[in-house]
Amino acid sequence: MNKKKRILIKLSVCLFVIVFAVLYFISPRQIIKRTVMRYERDFTIPVFCRQVRFEYDIKTGSYCGKFEISKRQADKILEKLNYLYDRSYVYFWKKKIMEDKYAQILDSTILNSTIIWNLLLESEDTGEILHNRKDIKSEGLFEESWLTEADAEILAIYNIYADKYLNYTLYQYDGKERNSFVTVYKNKQNKYYISIKYVVYTELEDCGGPNLK
User: Fold this and answer.
1) Nearest C-alpha neighbor of 38 from the set 177, 203, 142, 210
2) Residue 84: partners with Cβ closer than 8 Å, 6 or more residues away
3) CA distances from 83 to 46, 76, 166 (A)
4) CB 148, CB 156: distance < 8 Å
5) Residue spans of beta strands (DSSP E) within the chain
6) C-alpha–C-alpha distance, residues 90 and 146, integer Å
7) How far apart are CA 8 and CA 18, in angstroms?
8) What keywords are assigned to this protein (predicted)?
9) Looking at residue 68, what DSSP letter applies?
10) Of 65, 66, 107, 135, which has the fewest Cβ atoms less than 10 A away?
11) Which helix (H) or strand (E) holds 24?
C-alpha cells in the first residue's frame, strides 16, 4: 500500500468519526440528556425506542419529541422519574434550613440543581396533603396535539426546571427560562409512549405547559 492510499484511508476514518460524533451529538437522545436535567444530566430516553416525531427549533433550543416505548421501558422511566421527584422533593424542603456552614456536608442527592414536580399530584387547600388528579384529559393536553392521544391513560406528567432560588446550585441566570414537561401514557391499543416538551422562553412569554383543567 502506497503512502497516498494510507493517507486517504486515514482521512476517511477521521471523516467517519467526525460525522458519527456530530450525528450522535445532535441526536434526540443526546439533546434530551443535555437539556431536560441540564446540570445532573441523568435522564434521557431509552437507547432502543421508536421515534414518532421530533421537532427542534435550532434558534431557541426549544423542542418537542414523541417516542414509542415498551411497557418495560415505561416502567423503568416511571421508576426513574419517581426517584428524581423524591430526590428533588426532599431537597426542596430541606433547603429551607440550609446555611453556609452546612453546604459542604449535605448529601449529593439532596444538593442538586433541578426541581421536579409531579403534575399528577395536587395539594389540597388544607394541610398540604397531596392527592392524585382524576380530571386530566389526554386530548388537548398540549398545544401540540400530537404529543398525546385522545382517551389515553396518562401515567405521568412531570415538570422539570432548574432551581434558581438558591446559591447552593449550579444555576446561572442568562435571561432565559427553561422548562421541561415529560409525559408517559398508554393509548387504547395498549402501546406506551413518552413525550417531552422542552421550552426556552423569557419571563414575559408563556412556557406552553399542559392544560390540567
Assistant:
1) 177
2) 37, 42, 43, 114, 116, 158, 160
3) 17, 10, 22
4) no
5) 50-56, 63-69, 114-118, 121-123, 130-132, 153-162, 177-186, 192-201
6) 34
7) 15
8) Membrane, Transmembrane, Transmembrane helix
9) E
10) 135
11) helix 3-25
